[in-house]
Amino acid sequence: QVQLVESGGGLVQAGGSLRLSCAVSGRTFSSYAMGWFRQAPGKERQFVAAISWSGSRTDYADSVKGRFTISRDNAKNTVYLQMNSLKPEDTAVYYCAAYSRPYYYRTTNLPDFDSWGQGTQVTVSS
């Protein structure tokens, strides 16, 4: 049974930085693409960033391009989200997710990710 555990969320002022981590167990981590999503109160969960199993491909939502960086360390079974130049509109619960199939990464659609962490709160004050 795959488990994903996020950490690193918190309260930060606008313009600040945070790094989220997601530790994965119960699956061959290096075989699966990974992603980060976020959900603000009253809104649907939305895509933030994703990375292929090897790390050779990354994708970002337009709203975070140039500010957020996704990376992974396959030796540590961990995926990261470095968030810089944070804005109040980045406030949300951030979720780590694992792709549903190994060695496969085509879209960043939410249904393509089948395992989720419990989420970590990120709050950006103005």
Short description:
The chain has 126 residues and is mainly beta.
How far is the N terminus from the C terminus?
40 Å
Shape: globular
Count helical runs: 0
Radius of gyration: 13 Å
Along the chain, the helix and strand elements come as: EEEEEEEEEEE
Let me know the largest β-sheet. 7 strands, mixed
* Proportion of residues in helical segments: under 10%
What does the model show?
The chain has 126 residues and is mainly beta. The protein is 0% helix and 49% strand. It has strands at 3-7, 10-13, 18-25, 34-39, 46-51, 58-60, 68-73, 78-83, 92-99, 113-116, 120-125. The strands form two sheets. Strands 2, 4, 5, 6, 9, 10 and 11 form a seven-stranded mixed beta sheet that branches. A hairpin with a 6-residue loop joins β5 (46-51) and β6. The chain is globular. The mean pLDDT is 97.
Descriptive terms for the model:
seven-stranded mixed β-sheet, mainly beta, single chain, 0% helix, globular, four-stranded antiparallel β-sheet, 126 residues
